[in-house]
Amino acid sequence: MKVLLVGSGGREHALAWRLSQTDGLELHAAPGNPGIARLGECHPVRAHDGEGLLSLAGTLGTDLVVIGPEAPLVTGVADELRHAGIAVFGPSAAAARIEGSKTFAKEVMRASGVATAESLSVARAPCVVKLDGLAAGKGVWVCRTAEELDAALKAAAPVLGPSKPAATLARELVLRGAKAVLEDPNAELDRWLNERGGVRRATRTFEEARALARELTKDIPPGTPLSEILEEERAERL
Fold this sequence. Notes:
five-stranded parallel β-sheet; 3 domains; Rossmann fold; alpha/beta; Dna Ligase, domain 1; 12 helices
């Protein structure tokens, strides 16, 4: 079986590592990375190049294409490949909208009765400002004051451009929760690992990695902004 893995990040490396353990599987990647190159053959085709991927899949005689990154899924690369009769693991562009648009995700949550922060028609501190589209995990600003809100809007402006500043910003109320802080996170981590034979043994499986995460966050209520906690701890130690 020939599998073409699309992407070049750590997520794709993890997928390649697992796929390569399948007997009788021939692994290809586009574009891949040096780590993936140890597990299969990499090809210089970009992840968002639907036409290039279609041509490569045809040349290789690919049985399955696995798409890792969000961006090509949002732009419809999976649809393009499926339309040509190629089996694809990855959602359609319509389904990927829930990842590609925070505003659309909000609409889905409201329609489904999922609890979520209230949207604001106008940004007023305290609030959360988010870039609506994909932002590689960096398009969110928690604004507690008017000054922080001004700074967030200025930071977002170069990305948005002058023509559509409001349409591509999501604005929400800040959700506040209880804060739990580990007295000595490094000691807690060392203790947990030593009880399980060290880091290589303890985090060898996804199940054990989840157990580690649960142990270290067991006293933190769901929904607590962990990044905010870490920032506060770091500021206290400076």
